[in-house]
Amino acid sequence: MTFLVPLPVVMPLLGAALTLMMAGKPRAQRTVSLSVLTGTLLVSIALLVLATTDGPQVVAVGGWVAPLGIVLVADQLAALMLVVSTAMTVCVLVYSIGQGMADGHEETPLSIYHPTYLILTAGVTNAFLAGDLFNLYVGFEILLVASYVLLTLGGTENRIRAGTTYVIVSLVSSLIFLTAIGLVYAATGTLNLAQLVGRVDALPDELRLLLQGMLLLAFGIKAAVFPLSAWLPDSYPTAPAPVTAVFAGLLTKVGVYAIIRTETLLFPGGRAGTMLLVVALLTMLVGILGAVAQSDIKRLLSFTLVSHIGYLLFGVGLATQLGLASAIFYVVHHITIQTTLFLATGLIERRGGSTALDKLGGLARLSPVLAGLFFIPALNLAGIPPFSGFIGKAGLLQAGAADGGILAWALVGGGVLTSLLTLYAIARVWNLAFWRKPATSGEASPLPRLMVAPTLALVAFGVGLTVAAGPLFSVSDQAADFLIERTGYVQAVRPEDP
Amino acid sequence: MTPNLVYVIVVGVLFAAGVSMLLERSLTRILMGLILLGNGANLLILLGGRAGNAPIVGTTAENEMSDPLPQIMILTAIVITLGMTAFLLALAYRSWALNGHDEVQDDVEDRRIMLLAEKDEGPGTADHDVSDDPGISAPTGAGGSTAAPR
What we know:
The structure holds 2 protein chains of 2 kinds.
Chain A: H1 7-21, H2 26-54, E1 57-60, E2 71-74, H3 76-103, H4 113-129, H5 133-151, H6 157-188, H7 193-201, H8 205-223, H9 231-235, H10 241-265, H11 272-292, H12 297-318, H13 321-352, H14 363-366, H15 368-382, H16 388-403, H17 406-435, H18 449-467, H19 469-484, H20 487-493
Antiparallel strand pairs in A: 1-2
Chain B: H1 5-22, H2 27-46, H3 68-99, H4 108-121, H5 134-137
């Protein structure tokens, strides 16, 4: 069944070509996009089942064996990320179709929306399935270019300003990644991750630290960790709501996935563990303090997005099995919740007329459904039991306590403080936007069903994560175990190596 | 294999020139900086492989071939940089058409929040970075209501 492995990349690309050819027929475009993305979701679920029962599925593309060819590897972590991200893309596509149809006038040229959206999905799936560094780079570039187009859709002044900053920062991160690839190739002679495992171990310590630092820098800009995160709250809020939702859910997580993959596979137990923990603590605190200062819901959520990336780095920096498993669980939770919250914010914008907190009010009475759609994922984000946010954070805090060092305890404290401050930020949004009496009467346009339905589905998915937390955590545990002892991965990709 | 020192120095010069152009205000200059950086990175990749004759089976003996992998990587990187350059040029042109200039601007919301903080806690609490244009630093009075709820 290894023919399934390239499908999550090939299908969206073919769909993008088809929708581009049907540029004048929006209904055909919508049908093609929806069917392609649903098909990709089904293939991803099949890959997850196969990876859990059979072990990692490996395909050498074109039959060319590494290092001259590239391999696509669907192990448990990759398949899990594929399932969650394709589920997000399907829901956000339905939401954006609802928004486009309800808006009526063609403010944003929808004829390039569908192809670009599908190319973004193809880039994300390519990055998750990549078995060598250069394919990872190509996957990053595909998704980045699509994101540039989606961010500056419509070409308004605000979007051009925010888009320019985003494009330049992302290009710098791509160039750093490319430089790191050049250095890795010069040092080891290969870029295939499985082959690199042995060769990087044999490198002198300082060279390995240099390579690790450059890769972390490149992925850190993408994942928006603390010193490199200022671009995110500047650029994400200006995009249209579904675009922000898919960026928040997917793009930073591809950076986190790349960090997880390279840290566990290529540089285990290196000297960067301490640095990762310090950066995680700073990301958590600086991000949430930034969120507390904001008066616009979208910017507030962008800052919480940055802050919770710190939790993921916490798990990766600990490098224990419980830490990694909790981090993987938290990634799945975080993708779902951030996407849901941004979609709910889009609904708030539609109902209340704006996302600035001082212009909103009384939404709970105006639309109880919207209040529920915002409240449940917001509680989940803040880590209220019994939701999946609480479970993920509990796992991370347990892993930190088990590690026992001073830095780990500082991170445990920082994690609890961040959770409290997230709750404060969410409570502030709830009070100002939903509970107080309306200051100005916003336009009471009804919420289109096609926008509410995918948000509802995502909220249900988030609650489902709580219900299915047991099996999900055991899958994360297996994935973490597989990552830590790297021989399983190397054996699957290169069985001929001793 | 040890690369030629001249190439390494050229890569260094390209990176230095690219980074210094990257720190400019005008988007066109930033774009030039990115192109220089891209060329530097491509040359750096080239240095990772062995030099030799054209790597075509039948034309050269296998032990005289140059390493084809860096050449492949550079080709891909050049194509990607081409796409980015085209897109950034379109952005610069659009910015020029809308604003009359193609300068990359700061985060306006961030500045507004800093000004709010100064108003609440007294002057000098948030530190400004004063840019050359006096109009940018002055509070415009536009923005959210003054009775911002806390």
